[in-house]
Amino acid sequence: MHFLEYYHKTVVKYDLINKFTYETSKEIPQLKKIILNFNCKNFGLKSFAATILSLKLITFKRNARVTNSKFPNLLLKIQQGQPVGCKITLTKSYMYQFVSSILLEIISKISIVLILKVSKKK
Fold it and tell me: Which mean pLDDT values do the consecutive 10-residue runs of the chain (122 residues) have?
């Protein structure tokens, strides 16, 4: 069990019960799935491969799906059935692993950069 899943089941669940009035335990909000989607109007082979590779590296999952356009769009010069993006659905342990990597790696680095910028201004 991932530490975020354990934390959600033990701490967050009871905090939500104490703060809001739920009649049953099934009313408590849960994370069921995370869907990541990249769309682009101009997809060349290089940019398409780069987006699929970046999705695989970010999510630690291998099965990225290609999304095709359902309708033609004359303004964007997209034909029907042309690839326009890629998509990954994360569930269970992959979902918690993705959320923890976002929280621990990316947001912490952003906050460090913001702290350094604020300290330089003073």
Answer: 84 86 83 84 73 82 81 76 83 86 78 65 58
